[in-house]
Amino acid sequence: MAKIGDIILAEFPLLLAPMEDVSDPPFRALCKENGADVVYTEFISSEGLIRDAAKSVQKLDIYEKERPVGIQIFGANLDSMLRSVEIVEASNPDIIDINFGCPVKKVVCKGAGAGILKDIPKMVALTEAMVKHTKLPVTVKTRLGWDHDSIHIVEVAERLQDVGCAAISIHGRTRAQMYKGDADWTPIAAVKNNPRMHIPVFGNGDVNTPEQAKKMRDEYGLDGAMIGRASIGNPWFFNEVKHFLQTGTHLAPPRLEQKVAAARRHLEMAIDWKGETLGVLETRRHYTNYFKGIPNFKPLRTRMVTSNEAEGVFEVLDEILEEFTLNQPV
C-alpha cells in the first residue's frame, strides 16, 4: 500500500493531476465521487498568494468531501514559497505539492515550474526548506528533465526524497517536449527501481486508457497513476480504470442520462463556486468529452460553448436528453 506521510492510500492509487482551469472544486468533487483516490488543486502562484491576488486565493478553496486533497503551488523565490506555505496551511489541505513540471513559458521564464530543472541544487534546496517549514507532507510533481540531454531524474528523485519529499509524481516527458510525442515511462521505472528509493513514485503522462494504467502498474512497477487530460469531461475514467485493474474487463460506459446529469451538476457547482460568468466559461472545455460519440452533436456543442448564460446551456442539456434518450440501448 502506498502512503503519503501518514495518509494510507489504495494499493495502486489514482490521482487527479493539477490542471489549470480544470481541476477546480466542482470537477475535483466529481472525480472523487467516481474513484479518484487523491485530488490536487490547480497550480497556484506563490507570488499571487503573498500578494493576496483574488484568483490565486480562490484556488485555495477545498471541501471535506475531496480529502485527501493536495494544494499545489509554484514559484522560484524561496521567501515567497515559504510565506505561501503558511497561507496554504490555513486552508488545511492534507498535502502540499510543489510544481516543478509546468512547461508554460510564462512560468518557466521566471525559473518556476519546469524552469527549475535547469538548477537542480536550487530545486533540492527549495524542497528541503519547504519540508522543514510545514508539518504537512510535501510532495513534488516534475518532469524527466529540461531536455533529452539533461535527464537525471533517478538522481534528482533520490535527492528530493533525502531532503524529506513524501512522494513524487513524474510526467514522462521533458520540458522541451511540452505535451508532444509519447510519454516515456522507462526513466520513471528506473526511479522506482532505484534500491535507495522508498517513497511512492507515481507515473503521469498518456494514461488515457485502462490498459495504459495496467501497463504502468504491471510492466513498469509504479506505485500509482496520476491522470490528467483523460479525465476532462470524463470523471468516470477513474472507476473505469479501477474496474479494469480488478477484473480485466471494461466497465459499461455511463448512460446518456448519467452524462447529462453530471454535466448539469458540474455547471451548477461551478456557478455556485465562481459565479455564472466564470462558471459557464470554465466548464466549456468538458462538453466535447461529456458527449463524445453522440451523432450530430456538433451544432449542439456549438451552442453550448458559445452561450454566455447558464440558461442556454441547460436548454441544450434538456434537448440532448429529449433527442437521444430513445436511441440509447436498454
Task: Explain the overall architecture.
By secondary structure, the chain is of the alpha/beta class. It folds into two domains: 3-247, TIM Barrel, CATH 3.20.20.70; 256-327, Orthogonal Bundle (Non-ribosomal Peptide Synthetase Peptidyl Carrier Protein, Chain A), CATH 1.10.1200. Helix content is 44%, strand content 13%. It is built from 13 helices and eleven strands. Strands 3-4-6-7-8-9-10-11 form an eight-stranded parallel β-barrel, surrounded by six helices. It has a two-stranded antiparallel sheet with strand order 1-2. α4 (78-89) links the parallel β6 and β7 (95-100). α1 (25-33) crosses α11 and α4 (78-89) packs parallel to α6. The longest helix is centred in the C-terminal third of the chain and has 35 residues, at 256-290.
The low-confidence runs, each spanning 5 or more residues with pLDDT under 50, are none
CATH fold node name of the largest domain: TIM Barrel
Largest sheet: 8 strands, parallel, barrel
Strand order of the largest sheet: 3-4-6-7-8-9-10-11
Can you give me a brief rundown of this structure?
The chain is an alpha/beta fold and 330 residues long. 44% of the residues lie in helices and 13% in strands.
